[in-house]
């Protein structure tokens, strides 16, 4: 027993400060939900966590790009569906207008509706856009078998790009050389019924081909988006395991350290009395 240095009390105090620090750490983790609240908590895992967070943001941005791309394709497919319906109606009118029982006035009225359908197709071509992008009104395209292209990002890494074809679905380009183009369909002109129908069928074939290409691209975008979502979820789980606190475990730690803190305080009270008790004994010996 030493009177000048109370080693027992010092040892209890060391245990008290350790328990208090551990309790404070557990409290911070419970209150924030994170086991890494500053660089000093775990420098190595903090660096890994930040890298994973950066990767997650990149994957999420790429996923949004793919979703936007799929939505864009869907928008233009809707426009092409409208064009396709107009072509179907136009074919019906050509067949109807070629009936020998119609007079010139009847044919003129049918041609007027055909012209309105042409205007509708041209309007759809020029007005359909997605966030300022027009895929069906590429003025540089004169043959829809030789489309233009725009590029869009489809991944989180450099160089992960996809090409989206652009077309010109105006009546001046729907059709093909050697057959004719949609703007030439005319019941009142020199073109025969068969010629008009051949032009319309050619235009229908072009529209179907374009829709097929866009459908394949949309499926690809949706598949890639799903894949990126799964990768992003896996990376988020990895990042969470590094940074997020296990609340149940931290509650247990906090409760355990609270008991140790309180017991240490009680022990320090007792050990601090020991020198006084010894002095009292010595006084009685005198």
UniProtKB/TrEMBL annotation:
Report domain Flagellin N-terminal positions: 4-140
In terms of InterPro entries, this protein maps to: Flagellin, Flagellin_C, Flagellin_C_sub2, Flagellin_N
Q: What is the protein's major site of localization?
A: secreted
Molecular-function GO term, any one? structural molecule activity
**What superkingdom does the record give?**
Bacteria
Which of UniProt's keywords are assigned here? Bacterial flagellum, Cell projection, Cilium, Flagellum, Secreted
Transmembrane regions: none
GO annotation, cellular component aspect? bacterial-type flagellum; extracellular region
- UniProt subcellular location: Secreted; Bacterial flagellum
Q: Where is the Flagellin C-terminal domain?
A: 197-282
Q: What does this protein do?
A: Flagellin is the subunit protein which polymerizes to form the filaments of bacterial flagella.
Q: Which protein family is it in?
A: Belongs to the bacterial flagellin family.
Instruction: Kindly provide the name given to this protein in its UniProt entry.
Output: Flagellin
Recorded source organism is: Clostridium intestinale DSM 6191
